[in-house]
Write a structure and sequence with these properties.
heterodimer; A: 259 residues; mainly alpha; MetI-like fold; 83% helix; B: 253 residues; 11 helices; 81% helix; 0% strand
Chain lengths: 259, 253
């Protein structure tokens, strides 16, 4: 029996058993009628909704809006985060001054800022972008700080022997040595920014975006549209992560055998 | 260098105090309307009055009840699922593709689905907390059990160790550190998701208190909620880290 598990086609077939069973169960629920039919939409209507949304260009618009929000937030929050993390790690004064404040603010659940930011900025794109940037900011600060503070001392000693200026020291020693951890921070930031984008779009429910589409569909009780949006969200999230993992591998290719 | 170093907490306290001072001064100038900026003293007064009239503890009690209940369900399910996935090749082959696919979906994206399935009552909030807790715990348990060296299983087989002592004396101690880390991450995530769910749909809870404050332009109530949810988040993380350290003391000893 266990020989069966070693063959890839058999594995794929086995992996499909449970999802297919769930789909059958779902389809049966949808035909049972009554109150349940509202939530358990027939699978055919999910496909129809997908074709409809994709055909009208609505799906593409929402996907692009969500993607650009997530990427913009990642860039803003990531650049600010890496900068602050590096400065905190190289300057004791800044570390002492900003560190405690950073750790205090970080304790508030990210989306708990929404009511406050909503009061200040409304529920438009500004409020969403701020939350997404904040989501990307936290992990990049933490990881670039760790990355710089854990650079091996002997590398710095070599730099001193060569008489490096502080710019050279930063560019030739600190930055390359801290790069793996900085990129770990950016990887986490990407995941958090993606989650925050969908979350703020659902919660604020205005404008375009996959999360806003889900929120709207919830109000209209369109489970088929929700499922389409979730499917696209999952696929896009997976693709983003995968692309970034490749980029990270490319940037860290020098690590090769030593890592 | 003979001078005694300044204790670390004095410079650490300075920036928050400065910030609060500047905030108080800025709101005293009357430059900003009260809907935009209220002085910290006002926020503290609101916090105190919410605490005295019992409103705060009612909201907090509701939120913590949902958190504990949902977390217990999600974490238990995650532990069982993660362990089963790691121990049985068949269960892994059957469930891991589905598990990995569903994990790609941000937990908050399940909110609209669950609202349509369960409504916006308690069941929905407890379920979303359970879902949020399930994934990190299942993943950490899977990694933890998989991380147990194969040789230990073989030694147990050679000694014909019965299942119960094997689980209690080998499997559990070996997997406790990664699982506790997973539980801690799950707890923080569950709190985040709960606050978000309460913002969206609730009649009580810290999130709902903030959302009401927003709708009534009571920025003092909103800020009080921010402070309380931050303190809870901090306490949860610290508490979990403390347990983690206690439970893994033998490793460094």
């Amino acid at each position: 029996m266990s020989m069966l598990l070693k063959r890839p086609p058999a594995r794929i077939a086995i992996g499909l058993v449970v999802p297919v069973l769930i789909l059958f169960w779902w389809q049966a629920q949808s035909q049972a009628g009554g109150a349940r039919a509202l939530a358990f939409v027939p699978l055919g209507s999910v496909a129809t909704a997908f074709a409809e949304l994709a055909g009208s260009g609505q799906l593409l618009d929402d996907a692009l809006a969500t993607l650009s929000r997530a990427v913009t937030g990642l860039l803003l929050g990531g650049i600010a985060g890496v900068t602050l993390g590096v400065v905190m790690a190289t300057s004791r004064l800044v570390d002492r001054l900003v560190g405690p404040l950073y750790h205090a603010i970080r304790q508030v659940p990210l989306l708990g800022w929404l009511p406050l930011i909503g009061l200040w900025l409304g529920n438009g794109d500004g409020a969403k972008l701020l939350i997404v940037s904040l989501a990307a900011f936290y992990p990049t600060v933490l990881n670039s700080y760790e990355g710089i503070t854990h650079v091996e001392k002997r590398y710095l000693d070599v730099g001193r022997i060569y008489g490096f200026t502080s710019v050279q020291r930063f560019r030739l020693i600190l930055l390359p040595a801290a790069l793996p951890l900085i990129l770990t921070g950016v990887t986490q930031a990407l995941a958090f920014a993606w989650i925050a984008t969908i979350g703020t779009e659902i919660l604020l429910g205005s404008g375009s975006g996959l999360g806003a589409a889900m929120g709207l569909a919830q109000a209209q009780q369109r489970m088929d549209v929700i499922l389409v949006a979730i499917l696209v969200t999952a696929l896009l999230g997976f693709t983003l992560n995968d692309l970034f993992a490749r980029l990270r591998g490319h940037l860290l290719r020098w690590q090769g055998a030593s890592a | 260098m003979m001078a005694r170093p300044i204790p670390a907490f004095i410079p650490a306290l300075a920036p928050p105090l400065l910030l609060i001072g500047a905030w108080q001064a800025a709101s005293a100038t009357g430059l900003f309307p009260a809907q935009v900026l209220v002085p910290p003293s006002e926020v503290m007064r609101t916090l105190a009055s919410l605490a005295v009239n019992g409103e705060l503890s009612a909201h907090l009690g509701q939120s913590l009840f949902r958190l504990v209940f949902g977390f217990a369900i999600g974490a238990t399910a995650g532990l069982a699922f993660g362990a089963a996935l790691a121990l049985s090749k068949w269960i892994e082959a059957l469930f891991s593709p589905l598990f990995l696919a569903v994990r790609q979906v941000p937990v908050l994206a399940f909110v609209p689905v669950l609202v349509l399935l369960l409504g916006i009552e308690e069941g929905f909030k407890i379920t979303i907390v359970a879902v949020a807790a399930f994934f990190p715990v299942a993943l950490a348990t899977f990694d933890g059990v998989r991380g147990v060296p194969k040789a230990w299983f073989e030694v147990a087989r050679v000694y014909r160790t019965p299942l119960v002592p094997f689980v209690a004396r080998i499997l559990v101690p070996a997997t406790v550190p990664p699982v506790l880390t997973g539980l801690r991450i799950a707890l923080t995530r569950a709190w985040l998701v709960l606050v978000a769910a309460e913002l969206l749909a609730a009649d009580s809870g810290i999130g709902q208190m903030m959302e009401m404050g927003r709708q009534m332009f009571r920025i003092d109530v909103v800020l009080a909620g921010v402070i309380v949810s931050g303190l809870i988040g901090f306490a949860l993380d610290r508490g979990a880290k403390w347990i983690e350290r206690r439970a893994t003391r033998w490793r460094t000893a």
